Amino acid sequence: MNMPTERIVITGVGITAPNGDSLTAFRENLLHGVSGVERFTTRYVGETLAGVCHFDPLRHQKRKDLRCGTRAGSIAVYAANEAVRDARLDWAAVDKTRVGVYLGITEHGNVETEHEIHELGKYNFDIKYWSHYHNPRTVANNPAGEVTLNMGITGPHYTIGGACAAGNLGCIQGYQQLLLGEVDVALAGGVSESIQSFGIFAGFKSQGALAEHLDPTKASRPFDLKRNGIVIAEGGGVFIMERLTDARARGATILAEIAGYAVNSDATDFVLPNPERQSECIARAIARAGLEPRDIHLVNTHATGTKMGDIQECQALRRVFSAECHDTHYNNTKSFIGHAMGAAGVLELAGNLPALNDRVVHPTINVDELDPECALPNLVLNHPKAAARLDTILNTSFGMLGINSVLIVKRYRP
Length: 414
What we know:
By secondary structure, the chain is α/β, with parallel strands linked by helices. It is about 30% helix and about 20% strand.
């Protein structure tokens, strides 16, 4: 399985996460054990827990834009603008016809529809009070489309619906479009406005999969024996991706190189994951990157804090990584921010990118008693760990209806 000879690199990162609105702040909080989960009240469900972002939407938008648009769109606009700034692109000189926007989402339109129906109830469901902004707010391409409107991008834009695998899928799409020569700059990643929908809280609660804890910061606890479910989070992340030749020509700082990826489907259940298919996806990504399992130095796990989900992912990882993979470390970012759904993959990868330079693995927090069925060698718990080697990062993201995505990045070497 051969990769194309053209090399694709990441030259900028823009994020908003529950515990940081820049990569610098996010990384600092990951290394110092600072959670972004807090108490949150939502319609009909009442008080619950969530990962809530606190970015300033007016940094890149006007108040009218916020009234007309969506929360997911606002998150996307913020992250995309911050990514361009981080990449030090001369945006005025960039050919906007050669820029593409590819964003993964879990779902879109639920939030706006719930809000409209709630407001309509105040007027005895008289549809003359239904917002004329509803249709552009709820179309699936909305978050990526709002980015193009805000930034004057006239190249292609679309969103990729991939449940909780979507953040990786957005990056994979950007990578592929650059290889095809369709664009010269890709704004790729994922966004989630999930906490704005009462339905997603109610759905997980009815499944018995919504996390509870007296201390919100300790509610998200993947791998812990007493974990009791998912903490829902919002957030977004966008990478600036370019062909290496273009990045070098403009003197860009190269943060990482895309090494490999894979996507597959379980085809077994609506919700329950299939560890065999997950392991096949991981192995395929490693092979596509021209690597062996022992060459992967950090695996950022998808683990969400559900009983069976965490166990089955660990089973999948053991199928691929043998005891001889001495340099392979494992960590989890959801323990800090909760599950950011369509943004999960890109946020989790972003938080680990600096490890290619500082060789420090951020920990999984809130593990008071490790579930024996989740015991992995070199699983980094509660405190950061310096790694002797850290040249490759593998990110796993798995979603409902059995969609699996894996993305591998590596240290850039000229």
